[in-house]
Amino acid sequence: MARKFLATEVSDLCVGKPPLRWLPATATVADAVAALKRSGDINDNPFESSLLDLLPKVDDGRIKHLEANSSLLEAIDSILEGAQNLVIPIKTYNQRQQHLITNPSLGTTTSTTLHNGKEYCWLNREDIIRFILNSINVFSPIPTFTIESLNIISNETLTVHYDDPAYSALPLITHSHLNQTSVAVVNQDNTLIGEISPFALSCCDETIIAAITTLSAGDLMAYLDYSGPPEDLVHLVKMRLQERNLTGMMDMMDDYYNPSSSSSSDEEFGAWKNGGMGRSYPGRRSEAIVCNPWNTLMAVMVQMIAHRVSYAWVVKEDYGLVGIVTFTEILRQFRSAVGSLNTKTFAVLRGPKFGVKLQI
Fold it and tell me: How far apart are CA 236 and CA 205, in angstroms?
């Protein structure tokens, strides 16, 4: 079993995953948004800027290309070196019907999945963790140890106090977005109240700008609730915008939350059953996913995958914040267990208490 695991190629993880759609570098943001609309992933208005304007000017290594026959260990090493997503060419291409699109702005007809005669797959940390979970018996008894004993809890958390202005968390939100985590909202006793997630913010409409400008971090969590912002918070935002003479944001809020429009379109602007207002975004949530130091590695992995998050906050019984555990640290633990492809035994856990050798 262990030999089979070590012989795994990254292309094995691509089975069943849809091929990537592609656009040329000369495409505009409007072209990208149109492609996303066709796939049902976006409902916003297009822009006429170039896609190149949205790409980082310097390659920071967060996206890395690997060959289809690269080993699973190479993929794990790439992620531990800073890559967040891996682009893998799909080994075999089925002669299925291609979805062709005609782009007047580009003057060409291109395939949405073929690029230079190849299809590509997109892998991330969750894909690798899922694969490891399916082969978890290879690492026995490591998955039964607590995350505390494995020393994978990081105390380098990004936190903001409940009563702090929401805009004070913007630098932390930017940093958490780069690390694919979130900002913890705590009280004065360092008790975890909730979180502000970059992913939740990305699911919001333009009114989130006004909310961040006027609300506290704690109120912003309520504003991010998946069922839409509560009516009292909408009124509070409007009142504070008026006090600061921010007429542009006031007009924007009125466009989204005009009471006269709520009766005409329940789907777009209607009042919600819980008394809230605004638009519903299923991806939004402010509730933090938590675990305890005494939880096993297996339990935490299952919890994170079930909630589709790449991290979990570690708390005490009273919800005092201890730290954070991430997919990256979990992968680092498994990588240290595996060792290298040339070893005949692998895995010595950190500390003499849990020294265990796994035979190949």
Answer: 18
- Reduced to 3 states, what is the DSSP secondary structure of residue 65? strand
Alpha helices in the chain (DSSP H): 2-6, 29-39, 72-80, 125-134, 170-179, 198-202, 207-214, 217-223, 231-243, 247-256, 259-262, 297-306, 327-338
In DSSP notation, 42-54 reads --SPP--SBGGGT
**What CA–CA distance (Å, rounded) separates 339 from 353?**
19
Give, as one character, the DSSP assignment of residue 20. Answer: P
Question: What does DSSP say about strands 108-111 and 120-124: parallel, antiparallel, or unpaired?
Answer: unpaired
How does DSSP assign 181-236, residue by residue?
Answer: --EEEE-TT-BEEEEE-HHHHHTS-THHHHHHHHSBHHHHHHHT-TT--BHHHHHH
Q: Is the dihedral of CA 44, 48, 54, 55 positive or negative?
A: positive
Predicted structure pTM score = 0.76
81 pLDDT higher than 70: yes
**What are the structure tokens assigned to 328, written together?**
């990256």
Mean pLDDT of the chain: 78
Q: Per-residue pLDDT tens for 111-170? A: 466 666 678 888 999 999 999 999 898 888 999 999 999 999 999 999 999 999 999 999
Structure tokens at 115: 């690029």
